[in-house]
Design brief:
Radius of gyration: 15 Å
Number of strands: 8
Order of helices and strands: EEEEEEEE
Distance between the termini: 23 Å
CATH class: Mainly Beta
Structural class: mainly beta
Helix content: under 10%
Largest sheet: 4 strands, antiparallel
CATH architecture: Sandwich
CATH topology: Jelly Rolls
Strand order of the largest sheet: 1-8-3-6
Low-confidence stretches: 1-7
Length: about 100
């Protein structure tokens, strides 16, 4: 089987942005099978919790402390990386999270 060329398919790029996360779970990044690295930084004064998948819960998953708590999703020692959706929930409304995703 011959794979198509990657040019023109958005491969080898990067995107940065941010979201206002509240007290209900929010999918911040959708699935991306080409993902190489995904970094989140809590840019608020409130604690946030991240989860791999569609639902984040308070006091579960990955805790991002206020004012700069960071979570980096990158390949493991075998080169495997989570390519599914990533969700967040915050302990207060309008809590900002910044991200950068590379593919």
């Amino acid at each position: 089987m011959t794979l198509p060329p990657l040019e023109g398919q958005g491969i080898g790029g990067s995107v940065s942005g941010g979201f206002a996360v509240g007290v209900a779970s929010l999918v911040v990044r959708q699935s991306n099978v080409y993902r190489k690295k995904l970094t989140f930084v809590n840019d608020s004064v409130n604690i946030m919790y991240g989860a791999k998948g569609d639902i984040a819960l308070i006091n579960a998953g990955v805790r991002l402390n206020a004012n700069g708590g960071t979570w980096v999703i990158e390949p493991d020692t075998r080169g495997r990386i989570w390519t599914g959706a990533v969700s967040f929930i915050a302990t207060a409304a309008a809590s900002n999270i910044c991200f950068t995703e590379d593919w």
